Amino acid sequence: MDIVNKxxxxxxxxxxxxxxxxxxxxxxxxxxxxxxxxxxxxxxxKDDIYLGIVKYGNIVIDVNAxxxxxxxxxxxxxxxxxxxxxxRLQQPGDILEKxxxxxxxxxxxxxxxxxDAELKLQMGVLNYNILKENLKLERLxxxxxxxxxxxxxxxxxxxxxxxxxxxxxxxxxxxxVAQTRIKLEQTEIKLKLQKAIYSGLPALNVxxxxxxxxxxxxxxxIKLHFQELVNALNIRTSSAxxxxxxxxxxxxxxxxxxxxxxxxxxxDLKAQxxxxxxxxxxxxxxxxxxxxxxxxxxxxxxxxxxxxxxNSTVNIDVTLIGLLPEGVRTDxxxxxTIEIGNIQNIHYxxxxxxxxxxxxxxxxxxxxxxxxxxxxxxFGRASASYIEVISGLSTDDQIILSDISEWEAIDxxxxx
Length: 416
Known about the structure:
CATH class of the largest domain: Mainly Beta
Structural class: alpha+beta
Number of helices: 3
Order of helices and strands: HEEEEEEEHHEEEEEEEEEEEEEE
Low-confidence stretches: 1-8, 29-38
Number of strands: 21
Distance between the termini: 61 Å
Strand content: 25-35%
Helix content: 25-40%
Radius of gyration: 54 Å
CATH superfamily of the largest domain: Efflux pump adaptor protein, beta barrel domain
Number of domains: 3
């Protein structure tokens, strides 16, 4: 019995010693990791980050910028007269022919002025016709007066010759013959005056007709002026194209010179890109551009660089080359890529987040044991998608492209 108890006690002591030894080992292991291995590394899932591989070759330096398609030339339609907007016959987006009525104005005063001008013109025409008839009548009267004068002259001449014959026979007195001779001279003078009047009458009549004709033409011009103004109450397109905008509403009072609407030729478009002012320095007239309409790619060339800056961007006009894809229209949002130039025989990588050209930054490089260590890399020139690696990385090196600002204070990461 004593022997059994001694054996059990020895077994219990042995188990206790084993637990003490195991506890001691765990304690020393924990001390080792606490004092020698440092703090635990942050861990990130590989699926949560974007990685890039350094390559060697050529890249195209380009600039990406958003923009819109706009008309090459806008045609503004303004009102030639004052009036109230009565009707709006067309809507923006309508394809219109030349002289299409897009809006109707009303102006009762102008319409009354046209009626008055028409009445005055009618009276002017009547006066002109009356004058022509009166001149014909005056000519007939002149012809009659000449005929009478010729008749009186001839009768008096015959009488004078007869009396001269009788005077020689002492049948007629000399006084009577003298009186007849005086009358003959008077009738001759009267005939000459009538003929002189007749010869000057055509020129006088032409002058009278010309004066009346000038008055008539003036009345016609006045009537035509008011007719054109009344016609201008119908606002028409000056050329064929697409109606872009109407800037007045029905019932609104517009004055002479008020802008009414804007049109542009159908598919006669250009691209206008909004480039960040920091990227404009390398852009030049004539550089190639690719315009993405989201329904196709259009080739183009830089045509104009705006000299001013608006909201930190500069407007770049691009001339489009070739046929436009279906569905493109004014104010369509687009993306443009301007080709600045080529860089050959360089190391490059997809552009990391928040990395700017010609700058030295810290990035995480992936090691073979699934760790990422922070290193310093010098970057150079950049395109819209890629950036040149000047130093710090070699071909086939792999880095984290995602935003690493949350790990700014960390030098090493564990990748799962």
